[in-house]
Amino acid sequence: MTIDPASPIPKYSQLREILLDWIEESGLAVDDAIPSERELGARYGLSRMTVRQTIDHLVAEGKLYRVPGKGTFVARPKIEMSLRLASFTEDMRARGFEPGSRDLARRIDPASGHLARLLAIRPGAPVHHIERLRTADGEPMAVERSNIPLAVAPGLADQRLAGRSLYRLLEEEYGVLLDSGEQTIEAGVCDPADARLLGLPAGSAVLLLQRRSFAAGVCVEVAISTYRADRYQLRSTLDPLY
Ligand code: 16G
Questions:
Q1: Angle 192-139-64 (CA atoms, 0-180°, nearest 5)?
Q2: How far is CA 194 from CA 51, 62, 229, 230, 232, in A?
Q3: What's the pLDDT tens digit per position in 166-190?
Q4: Whose CA, among 2, 25, 118, 130, lies 20 to 30 Å from 45?
């Protein structure tokens, strides 16, 4: 493919399509280098500025990444976020990653009015607050903050959680089998503390998730999670509107 100077499509967009096609067809693998901006400019008769604009877009989309002084490389495809009531552990295992988890904080807090409403408990009732850094093959993926009423899992504070599945533990120790949930997902900017934990530059884009999970109609968990937007994307099937 070549750049068509007569096309109404801006040249940087034409180059984007050419590069994406070329990456797919040339069999370039993740972490392989793409030609330098100078080479691409010469190959397609484009200014360095236009080539840079295209590469900037592809980097922002997460298709390429740059290493200063080394070049530009093919990025890993993003993980498709599960839209099912899956535990992190199950979800990662199903994708062939080794799930991991590091405890960041564990407390029993009195429920604020807001949290009490979400959990459908009385304000001030004790709630386990569990903050964990979730990893896949050792790489930080998300910070998860789970809130579980004490009444649901009384001895949970004494249970070791590192490297274990919270959902599995709820099932095995407390007979709590999650059977439904609801979730919101929105774009956000990572706060500095979470950015450090996730190994992201300050101010990076993230996906903010709020999940309520239920067992037999009772709300068992309100989880507020920060997922890396450079590693996750959403995919859903679309049904007709009517
Ligand atoms: C998921 C849930 C989280 C839950 C965790 C349990 C989201 C946003 N979060 O990651 O609410 O606490 O699974 O995972 O989906 P675990 O059983 O591996 O500990």
A1: 85
A2: 34, 20, 13, 14, 16
A3: 999 999 999 999 999 999 999 999 9
A4: 25
The per-residue pLDDT for range 114-170, each reduced to its tens digit, is: 999 999 999 999 999 999 999 999 999 999 999 999 999 999 999 988 878 999 999
Tell me if 166 CB under 6 Å of ligand 1.
Answer: yes
CATH number reported for the structural domain that contains residue 23 in this entry: 1.10.10.10
Residue 102 Cβ inside 6 Å of ligand 1? The answer reads: no
Instruction: Domain of residue 60: give its range.
Output: 11-74
For ligand 1, atom 6, the nearest C-alpha belongs to 87
Atom of ligand 1 nearest to the CA of 81: 15
Same domain assignment for residues 17 and 98: no
Here the ipTM equals: 0.97
Query: Which residue has the CA at smallest separation from atom 12 of ligand 1?
Result: 146
